[in-house]
Structure formats: C-alpha cells, structure tokens
Specification:
- The structure is a single chain.
- This protein is mostly helical.
- The protein has two domains: 26-374, no CATH class; 375-488, no CATH class.
- The protein is built from 18 helices and five strands.
- It has helices at 8-13, 19-23, 29-56, 64-78, 83-100, 106-129, 136-160, 174-186, 193-215, 220-234, 243-254, 259-283, 288-311, 315-336, 357-371, 419-426, 433-443, 476-481, and strands at residues 410-416, 429-432, 447-452, 455-460, 487-488.
- Strands 4-3-1-2-5 form a five-stranded antiparallel β-sheet.
- Strand 3 and strand 4 (455-460) form a beta hairpin.
- Helix 6 (106-129) runs antiparallel to helix 15 and helix 8 (174-186) packs across helix 9 (193-215).
- It is globular, with a radius of gyration of 26 Å.
- The termini are far apart.
- Mean pLDDT is 87; it is low at 1-6, 11-17 and 19-23.
- It comes from Rufibacter sediminis.
- This is HTTM domain-containing protein.
C-alpha cells in the first residue's frame, strides 16, 4: 500500500493522521492509544529530568540558554504530544551541552547522546516516510530501543570502571566515602568498618544486577524497582546533587515499562483532576466552614514553607525530589500488580543498522580512558579509576593498551602565581599537558614553573610569544571533547569525580 502524500500544511497541522492507520501495522486502536500515551508521558519525564539538572546548578536563569531550555521544558510538559516542542527542547539541551563541553558532567553528556539519538530517529523517519509528519508511536518505537541500549552501556561502564584497586581500597574508595558523608549528614547507619567494606561490594552487585534484570523480561519490573530505589537513595548524598542524574535514569527507565504503568499514571491523574473539580465546586459555596478551611490551609502551607526552609538547605532535594521520586516509585509499584497482555518481547530491536551509530559513540565514549583519551565525562565518575602516567589501577586493562599518548604527557607544577595551580601543587597532584596547556591559554597566569615529563620549564606571560608551546592548540574537535581530571603522584586514585 502506498504512503499517502501530505501537503506542507497537513504535515504540521493534521492531528488525526497516522501512518499506522494507513499501513495497518498496529494490532488494535487500544494498543496504539496506549503507546501514544506512553510517548506523551516520556516527553514529560524527560523534560522533568532537565528541570532537575538546572535546579542542581541553580541554572534556571543562569544565562539565556538555560532560560530558554527551562522554557522549552515547561512548554513540552504543557503539550507533550507536540513533536515540534520536543525537537525544540532537545535542540536547546544539545546546544547547552555543546557550550558546556569539554567540562560536561557525565549524565548531561548521556542526555545529549539520548537527544541526538531521538533527533537521528526523527530524521531517519522523515527519509523513510518522505514526509515531515511523523507518527508519534512509530517515532517512540524507533528511538526507544536505541536509548535503552545506551542506558545498558552506561551501567556496563559504571561497573567496569570500578573494577580497580582504588575502588576496593577502604581508605580511598568512593563507595566508602559516599556512605560516610551520607551517614554524617543523616546519621542513620553505623559507621562500622565491616559495613563500609560491605558497601563496596554491595554497590558493584546492585549496579551489576540492575541491568541484567532489566534485560530479562520476567525480572524486568523487579530490576526497575531495585534501580528506582537505589537511585532514589543516592540522590540524597550531600557530595553532589545527584537527583539530576537519578531523574534522568528514572526517565530512561520509563522506556522499559509496559503501558500498564502509563495507564496507572493517567488514571491517578484523571482521579486527581475530577476530585479537584469537585472540591473546587464545594469550596466555592461560601460559608464560614469553607472560609476557615481555606484560611487554615494557607497558614499551614506557609508554616511548612517556613519550617522546611529553616531545616533543609537544599529544599529541591528534600521536597521536590522526595515528592517526585516517591510518587514515581509508588505508582510504579501499583502498576506491578497488574498483569499486562501482550508483553513486549523485542526490547532492543532497532529499525535500521544506521541507527546504531549513536549507541556505538556512547560505547566508545566510555572506552576513552583505556585508549589514552579523556578521563572526564566518560562515565568513570566516582570510580577511583586511574589510567594516567603509564599507570593503570584497573584489574583487567593495563596502561599498555593505550593507543594515544595524551595521558602519558604529564605536567608537575613547581611554582606559580596562579591560585588554582598553587592548590594543585600543594595537593601533590599531576595533570596532563593537554589540560595544563588549555588552562594556561585561557587563564593566562603571570608565571608558572613546571616539569613536563621531568624537564623543567618556565612560562612568563610578559615574555611568551605566540609560538610558545602553551599557546598551541589541538584541532577544534579534540579541544571540544577532551577533558582530564587531576591525579595523585603516588599512583593512588582518591575519590573524585
């Protein structure tokens, strides 16, 4: 059957047209409507994840791009059925991510990869259908399997990067530091040495089990529940505002859920709206009781605002994240009791091999530390991984596996006029020449004496010429994507991002 041709106006305004109706590719109208609902809810939770990211950085109005991204997220939540609004939103996020590079956070670069995947799927369908009108269910079914693959890749590296001597060292392990800091803040768990060591293995086991259970249809919902609880809890760690990462994972988990979860959300939302209408109608009937209830409610809300503002410094974590996270988990648990017909069997099936390009990039991005490329934004966050200066603390991949020399070109700060570099020297840390050169080129310290691979050199701003080695640049692409952390001289990698 031939695909019907649409005019330019129809392509952007026709709401009732869908290709599945024409091609009879969907088993039933009910199933199609359920998938359409799932697409709309995903757009909402994906936009919410971006809101949590901006809250963590206090970035709602940090600059024009963040303001526009905030506006685009709100606009998408207001009308999640609009593909145009989704495209504007993901375009703004990708643009902001490009501005943040190379010093971009791990979850934000994964978010950018997911958005590129969505855009790639959209372009693929335009070419396939030869029209700008794209059916939303087909759109969801095209990008969702690819995004699921990318989440599994993230979990793979989250575990694989931690297979190193530093992570299993109770003195330096991030798993130990996390539980100590969190317990010092909330004072819930005992700080027993055995418990601290147990957390190292518990972290690895949980992060290993979650993706395995998610990939198996029979254990998927229990794996999702375990992941939701795990990421809900770590979002409270004071080391960072991890609710930005957790909210992104929640949104990506949603793609693994059945339409039963979507219907449960819709059902509860509809019940809330109907009860709100009834309550509003009742309260509009003026009498002393209604007036007293209204006044008491306002005063009680003001008291809660005063109390929480005084008790919690990070209100977004303890109020907004708690409400959103608990609500998400509870609704998900309620949907687990319903047995859905026609369970999804082909979780990772993709429409065309060309669509695997972005998931492959996601995988290669995580491989960078072992290739001798960047060590930041490669999903090695808080893993204690050390691969610089010809030393690898990884149990499986040695430093000799590196095919690029960027991590072997090392700088030691001897003395400097620049405050930040002084702290690097005091901490007895080293840095790659690539990172050092970028820092000097942008910050322009008055002077800095340094050793590059053991050779003593001095940079003086007043005497430096354009041909100085610290003024040279790599090509634009490398400068944009390469970013390195500082590392300890003694070979031990303490807990850091």
């Amino acid at each position: 059957m031939s695909i019907p041709s649409l005019s330019f106006k129809q392509a952007f305004t026709a709401q009732s047209i869908n290709y599945y109706s024409f091609l009879k590719e969907y088993p039933s109208p009910e199933k199609y409507a359920s998938s359409l609902l799932k697409y709309k809810i995903f757009c909402c939770v994906w936009a919410i994840a971006s809101i949590f990211h901006m809250a963590n950085y206090n970035g709602f109005t940090l600059n024009l791009t963040f303001f526009l991204l905030t506006s685009a997220a709100i606009a998408l939540m207001a009308k999640p059925s609009s593909i145009a609004r989704l495209l504007v939103f993901i375009s703004m996020q990708m643009f902001q991510a490009s501005l943040d590079m190379p010093g971009i956070s791990n979850h934000w670069i994964l978010t950018a990869f997911v958005n590129i995947t969505i855009l790639h799927a959209y372009v693929y369908l335009i070419i396939k259908r030869k029209s700008f009108y794209i059916d939303k269910v087909e759109f969801l079914n095209t990008f969702a399997p690819l995004v699921k693959i990318e989440l599994i890749i993230l979990y793979f590296y989250a575990v694989f990067h931690k297979l190193n001597a530093g992570f299993f060292d109770t003195e330096f392990s991030c798993a130990v530091r996390f539980i100590l800091v969190q317990n010092n803040y909330y004072n819930i768990l005992p700080s027993d040495k055995a418990l601290l060591a147990l957390n190292i293995y518990a972290t690895l086991i949980i992060e290993s089990i979650i993706p395995i259970m998610i990939c198996i249809r029979k254990t998927r919902y229990w794996g999702l529940l375990l992941g939701l609880v795990f990421h809900f809890i770590i979002a409270y760690n004071p080391i960072n505002g991890f609710y930005d990462f957790s909210s992104a994972v929640f949104a990506l988990y949603f793609l693994f859920t059945s339409t039963t979860f979507s219907h449960k959300i819709q059902s509860l939302y509809n019940n809330f709206i109907s009860r709100k209408v009834i309550l509003k109608k009742h309260l509009l009937q003026f009498n002393l009781v209604n007036f007293a209830l209204f006044a008491v409610s306002i005063l009680f809300m003001l008291f809660l605002v005063y109390y929480y503002n005084k008790v919690f410094q990070d209100y977004f974590r303890h109020i907004v994240w708690t409400t959103y996270g608990l609500g998400f988990i509870i609704i998900f648990m309620l949907s687990m009791n319903v047995k859905e017909k026609n369970n999804e069997t082909k979780t990772f099936s993709f429409a065309h091999y060309s669509l695997l390009f972005i998931p492959i990039l996601v995988f290669l991005n995580g491989l960078c530390p072992y290739l001798g490329l960047k060590t930041e934004s490669s999903y090695a966050m808080f893993s204690n991984l050390r691969t610089e200066a010809g030393i690898s603390n990884h149990y499986i991949i040695p430093a000799s596996a590196q095919i690029f020399d960027y991590q072997k070109d090392i700088v030691e700060i001897v003395s400097t006029s620049e405050y930040h570099l002084q702290n690097v020297a005091k901490a007895d840390k080293l840095m790659t020449f690539f990172q050092f050169r970028r820092f000097v080129r942008t910050e322009r310290p008055e002077f800095v004496t340094y050793k590059r691979n053991g050779v003593l050199k001095t940079f003086e701003l007043s005497k430096a010429t354009a041909s100085h080695e610290l003024y040279q640049k790599e090509n634009y692409l490398l400068e944009k994507i390469m970013f390195y952390r500082y590392f300890n001289r003694n070979g031990v990698q303490e807990c850091s991002h």
